[in-house]
């Protein structure tokens, strides 16, 4: 059984049953009982006012009281933070701290996934970044040496990237000078994208800058040695995000095109 109900704590209020996505809980004889299918969403744990419900196969030690209304983020302040974020392409030569990195990863872990699959793998390369650079650029060089008819079509733009980095290692279009690269491997691109958005917002709150790098993601995904190095297993790499402390600051938000909104 996936869900456990402490009958000594349960008061039969029915909140868990009413909020259960799979109609997996019912109140019988004044106590919540488990019935049917569970997708491990955790709503029953979160909604119970008596802490009577648990899911032992999940990390119950990480459950904490929800933030009270007074501590929720002001909507206008959050919007301003979203408007203020920038894609950072220049980083300080400073290691990303373990505490900040842990917050970023937890944001990805707690982001919603389709059918509550929780199927994302979050991969951080920091200590091994120089080795990953070597593997990626060696792989790209090898592919670019192939006859044009045999080289994968995606390698076209990488020819100029490789030429620049050979002339000047500081002109590394793929890795910039970021101290860390974060990859998200997942079967579903939307799951990875949602997690990446949450992680970027927390990264910005922790003083970090981020850059989504599709070129690097594609290269690592396509080069077997690079995939093996990062440990993506059978799931495709969907997102790559460079992380580090920004070497540039921005005084104001940037303009955008008028919104294309439809409200019915």
Automatic annotation (TrEMBL):
Its domain of life reads Bacteria
| Molecular functions per Gene Ontology | iron-sulfur cluster binding; metal ion binding; oxidoreductase activity
UniProt entry keywords in alphabetical sequence: Iron, Iron-sulfur, Metal-binding, Oxidoreductase
Q: Which InterPro entries match?
A: 4Fe4S_Fe-S-bd (IPR017896), 4Fe4S_Fe_S_CS (IPR017900), Nitroreductase (IPR029479), Nitroreductase-like (IPR000415)
Q: Does the keyword Ion transport apply?
A: no
Domain 4Fe-4S ferredoxin-type, by residue range, is 1-30, 35-58
Q: Give the matching PANTHER family.
A: NAD(P)H NITROREDUCTASE YDGI-RELATED, NADH DEHYDROGENASE_NAD(P)H NITROREDUCTASE XCC3605-RELATED
Q: Which family does it belong to?
A: Belongs to the nitroreductase family.
What name does UniProt use for this protein? Nitroreductase
Q: Which organism is it from?
A: Rubneribacter badeniensis
